[in-house]
Amino acid sequence: MGVVRVGGVDVAYVRVGQGPVVVLVHGAAVDGRMWQPQIEALADEFTVVAWDEPGSGRSGALPAGFGLEDYARALPAVIEDVGLGPAQVGGLSWGGTVVLELYRWRPDLVRSLLMVDTYADWKGSLPPEEVAARVEGARRMLAAPADEFDPTLPGLYADGPPARFAAMLDAMSREVRPETLARQLSLMAEADETDLLPRITVPTLLLWGELDARSPLYVAHAFRDAIPHAELVTIPAVGHMSNLEAPEAFTAAVRAFCRAHA
User: Fold this and answer.
1) Tens-of-pLDDT digits for all 262 residues of the chain?
2) How far apart are CA 261 and CA 150, in angstroms?
């Protein structure tokens, strides 16, 4: 595990393997452990890096007023600490939001993009009534008493959480910090990154669960239409957490893309 201090926060990350560097950015209400199957499988060919973003996992607490740009400026510190030059950077869901913002500020650190079951933020990708419903659902979740707080977001899986990762998912859920989740969901609701999509010039893989209910396939199609030369790969019969529901198919698609653009 590595740790780099940026903006007054200790940011932890895991680094395994050797070869071209692939950086994986987790979603909301989880941490870098969600990438466990990809870390293990890809380390034979790549240097795989998975961070715990500020406020999550083994990283330090969020400073007051920490915004989307702050997340995006923390991630370069990890990439530069690894020291292997521009990276292939992938993000799932909220993690894709952070990766897009990284590209906005530091495109020099990005060799290619992997956008996984993500959004140009809720405001940029979803109908207003859906955004309003999610904001209200988040408000109710975060208002629950501490002993009743459940950070599990609705619609993550096509057929329930995969049993082989149950222990890992339970451990991550127990360690979610309500103040971090509140910030993540608030930023997703407020931001709109559609302006950035046509300006992406690096190779881009759009990797989507066919049955994703949180970021439906129409969002993937909008990304494909907006990003020049983007490639869309769908994984059959899985939902939003496609990397855990179908890890073998997911990892094979990531390996092929990263190998082609290393």
Assistant:
1) 899 999 889 999 999 999 999 999 999 999 999 999 999 999 999 999 999 999 999 999 999 889 999 999 899 999 999 999 899 999 999 999 999 999 999 999 999 999 999 999 999 999 999 999 999 999 999 999 988 999 999 999 999 999 999 999 999 999 999 999 999 999 999 999 999 999 999 999 999 999 999 999 999 999 999 999 999 999 999 999 999 999 999 999 999 999 999 8
2) 40
The overall pTM is greater than 0.85: yes
Give the full edge-to-edge strand order of the sheet including 21-25. Answer: 2-6, 9-16, 47-52, 21-25, 87-92, 110-116, 204-209, 231-235
Residue 243 and residue 38 in contact, taking contact as beta carbons nearer than 8 Å? yes
